[in-house]
Structure formats: C-alpha cells, structure tokens
Amino acid sequence: MECRWRAASARADRRIDPISDRMPTGRDAVVLNGCADARESANQVRRFPSGFAWGAATAAHQIEGAWNEDGKGESIWDRFAHTPGKIRNGDHADRACEHYRRYPEDIALMRAMNLTSYRFSIAWPRVQPSGSGEPNSRGLDFYSRLVDSLLEAGIRPLPTLYHWDLPQALEDGGGWPNRDTAARFADYAGIVARALGNRVSSWLLFNEPVAFTSMGYLRGIHAPGMKSIRAFLKSTHTVNLAQAGGFRAVKAACPKARVGSAFSMSPCEPATNSPADILAAERAHRITNCWFLEPALHGTYPHAFPFLPDSLIGMSASDMHQMRAPLDFIGINLYYRTMARAAAWSKRLFDPGFTIFPVKMYPGSEGPATDIGWEVWPRAIYDLLMRITRDYDHPVIETTESGCSYNDGPNHDGRIHDTRRIAYHRAYLNHLARAIEDGADVRGYHAWTLMDNFEWAEGYGQRFGLVHVDFATQARTIKESGKWYAEVAARNAVDAISAS
Ligand code: FCB
Fold it and tell me: Any alpha helices (H) in 82-128, and if so which ranges?
C-alpha cells in the first residue's frame, strides 16, 4: 500500500505556510502514524502532519532592548518597569536580550534548532511613538530587516501586532478602557500590514487579551497597574472592537493574509461534582477562553456573568456587528489548567468582584510545579484543543505558546541540562499529537520561548528559554532542550509516552 506520509513528505521540501496551505487533518494524521517506517514504529514515536510548523515565540518588550532608540516612543511597560517597586529586583527591559541589534545571531540560533516558524511581536511605540499619526520609518525598517532575514533563513515570520506594550501616550489618554484606542489600533495595524504584507502571510492581532486586560486593569500587577473592575470590563470591550477593526485593516491592506489572534486558554475544571461548581467552571471557561473569541466569531458575548449591564462594558447598539471578525485561525497559548469553584454567599454579598462574577478560579496543584509555580498538566492541552475543536466546528489552530520556567544554569561542562523542560515539551506534544489524531486541526507548535528573557513582573528571575542567556555578557547557549527540540523538528515526530 502506498504510504501517504511519504507522498506528503515530498511537499515538506518547499517552504509552506501551514496556515494558508491545506494540511492533512486529524484522520490523515492517524494514517501518518500508521505509515511510520520500521525503525520508528507507531508506538515509539508520534508523528505530526507534513508541513507542521515547529517554532518558538517571543515578544518585543521581553527581548528587544533599545527601549528609546531610533525614535521609539515610551510604552506602558517602559513606564511601569521604571517605577520603583513594580518589578522583582528592580529589573527592567532597557537592554533585555539586545535582540534589536543581535537579531542575526538569534536567527542563526533558530536555524541551528531547525525552526520553521518564528513568532515575534511588533512594538507599537517603535512604529508610532505616541500611538497615532505618521509612522516612524526607522522602527518599521527594523521589522522589515527582521522579516527579510527570517525568509532568507527559510523561517516563516509570524508577527503579533500587540504583545502588551501600548504607547504610553495612549494610556495617558485613557488606555484600553477608552474605546477610541480601538480606532488607533486599527490604524496602526493597517500601517504595519502595508509595510510588511508583501512578505508576511500570517498575522496575529493580539496576544492574550484576557491576561493583559485583567492583570493590567483589574489586578494591577502588570502595566499600567490599575485596579478597577470598571476599567477592566471596559478595556475588554475596547479590545474586542480593536480586534475586529485590526482584522479589517490587515485584510484591506493584504486581502490574502491569514489573520488570527493568540488567546491564553486553559481547560476549566470544577473543584467538585456539585452543580454549583460545574456551573462555576463553565463560567470560568467562558471568561478565560471565549470572551475574545465569541465576539469575533459570532458577534456576541458568552454568558459568563449572571448579570452584566451593557453600560458596564461600554457596549452600544451597533457594537455586536462591529466586533465580528471571522478569524482565519485561532492561536492558543496554553500552559496549565484552571480550577473553579462557586463563590460562597458571604463573598458574593460583600466582595464586589464576586458579586459580578461569583466564581473562585485558582490554579491546579496536583501535578509538579515549575520554578514559577505553574502546574505541569500535559493533558490540559488535549482537553482544551478538543473542546475548541468541538465547540467551534474544527477551526484551524496553531499552538502559539507553551513552555515552562526552570532556572537551570550551565554545569561544569558548560552545558545546560534542563531535562525537566524536555520532559514538559515531550509530554505536551504527545497530548497535542493525540488531539490531532482525534480531529483537531492544529498546524504548528511554538515553544515559549526562544531564549531566556524579561519575564514581565518577574524580571529576569524566571527562565523559559530553549536558549540560555547570560545577561551580563549577552552570551547565548543552546540548552539541552533546544538540541532536543531541533531533533523533534527535524524528525517531525516526538518520542511517544503513555498518555495520562
Ligand atoms: C504568557 C505570555 C508571554 C510569557 C509567558 C511565560 O502568558 O504571553 O509573554 O510571559 O506567558
């Protein structure tokens, strides 16, 4: 019998964008496993569909440095990190990994790791220093050079337009709670798409809207450091409007572009089997996973809150229509699962947060914890991918982030033996492969992150990279996990482990 994998693998030689080209779907993937050659029988490795993207992800503020060079404006993260007491150890990202000038070296690392996709973000204040008006050509030139160099290296550029670094001038004018920011974002998206759209085929609009709106405007632990339920709710609505406006702006500039967003997602499990906790978990799912997806795909908000007057989020009559954006693919960032329990009545009566949203959400803690304290729970990725596949009728998905913080440093042999990171990615990839076999249309995986970097409020204290960075010298060393990942990418397969 002709092995369909061999037929398909001929295509792997030419560079493809897994988002725009049709790839074998779940059922084909089962066949792919069935066609494994004699050395790698199906029960030893899990193969991925031909053309599957093997990538790493980064964000501008976390790696670029050069915070005020070549006309770049101040971002809310520059301001936040320069404010004493906000970031662990007083760290800031003024230099970070100096990727702004070391990007050729970093692309060489990507090549050494056989990456076929690189997800990076564009710093809005580099392109529009005060968030509106004429673009800064020196800022755009940097991204243009980056994209060209990636293409020369045979790596797909996958830019994210917003990974949390709002121009400070826009924050001064009301930030995300101000709905005018949505129009500013659409203008900015159009500028970038016109500049890079002849070379970039796939785009991500936002990174983790639920994370930056809640941590920045509700909990105050990220920039701009506000603590207000009202500001949080309004900011979510502006971002939904911006997402759709940005989608239209990119499509207007490049009609063939494939446009998605990267959402932080996490399966939400009830603490007990009680009906109240099951309902709480469902509410948690709707706010965590669907609050920015449902408006784009269906023009509505999911029923996460028992009661939420339109005025609280700043919703007006035509907004349902305005929020719609038929995303071409869904980016999913997934690290862990979320537990949910119904809030006690005493809390609902006296705590305004629980009055509006009567759910206590907390991280799972059965699995081992990484150095940042996040639970390792590999089947989270399977459960979530299958739920989204079921509920949204088999959308095209890319895993835009997954990874773990382990602060292993160089050994006496100069190597970084981060075996726990290898175990993490191997386990998550096994469950991802299982989801593909069961029908999820996942086209790629991006490890968070290419190299150790500025981890927001944690500063340089948490290392998620496949590459170790010595921040005093800027020396980069590929960790053992990076070498392992290079092999996975080259084989398009991962060692099988028993699923649990
Ligand atoms: C994600 C963020 C990314 C990084 C990882 C660890 O939530 O998108 O920038 O901080 O977590």
Answer: 99-112, 124-127
